[in-house]
């Protein structure tokens, strides 16, 4: 792919001049950033900054006004969410991270079905991550608590073994012991895969991240490593509620 057509090599996800909004008005303004092929990129910012909208645009659930999304050197701006999942992008949304009418087992099998055929090994890996789910396999996911549904959604996504795992507030509503376990599992996953993480728990996000993006009023205002940003007063200012 030539330079005039877009990005040419690493990283595997590139967002270029993305602008989007709703009927009430624009939300994102010419947002550009990249996600390395390995490691965790944390997208942080105050409530209402546009973080969830940005993830929905990347996945194809929200239309964009201008700009492009590149995945593995291909322009996937107009690709459907299902096409993006098939291409190796996993997604755990903030709201409704499960198929509510399916059982926990059926939800996990849905994730397993997205994995490369050669590497499908059953749902035991998910139960190793969240042992409590072993006693809930026949329960409909929609009847579980918010934190429990989040666990099912994360486990389902990881079972699909995506090259890029996009997660919106994975620790919201999850009790602290499970938050610690999620952190361990995501750190392991990021050793060989890419993660794009939206997270209000700043300590959790910075501990995992190798790259940090700060979104403020629909624009990327800061980016760098956690070490580069940790002591900046600007970072604290942009993240103060």
CATH superfamily of the largest domain: P-loop containing nucleotide triphosphate hydrolases
Helix content: 25-40%
User: Pairing-aware structural class of the strands and helices?
Assistant: alpha/beta
pLDDT averaged residue by residue = 87
The Rg value, from CA coordinates, equals 17 Å
Q: Order of strands in the sheet with the most strands? A: 6-7-8-3-9-10
Major sheet description: 6 strands, mixed
Q: Given the structure, what is the number of helices?
A: 9
Estimate the global geometry from the Cα principal axes: globular
CATH topology category name of the largest domain: Rossmann fold
Low-confidence parts:
1-9
- Oligomeric state of shown chains: single chain
CATH class of the largest domain: Alpha Beta
Task: Give the CA-CA distance, first to last residue.
Answer: 42 Å
Q: Encode the helix/strand succession as letters.
A: EEEHEEHEHHHEHEHEEHH
Beta strand %: 25-35%
Annotation, overall tally of beta strands: 10
List the helices and strands and how they pair.
Elements: E1 13-22, E2 25-35, E3 39-44, H1 51-59, E4 66-71, E5 74-75, H2 81-86, E6 89-92, H3 104-113, H4 124-129, H5 146-159, E7 164-168, H6 176-189, E8 194-198, H7 202-208, E9 211-216, E10 219-224, H8 226-229, H9 233-239
Parallel strand pairs: 3-8, 3-9, 6-7, 7-8
Antiparallel strand pairs: 1-2, 1-4, 4-5, 9-10
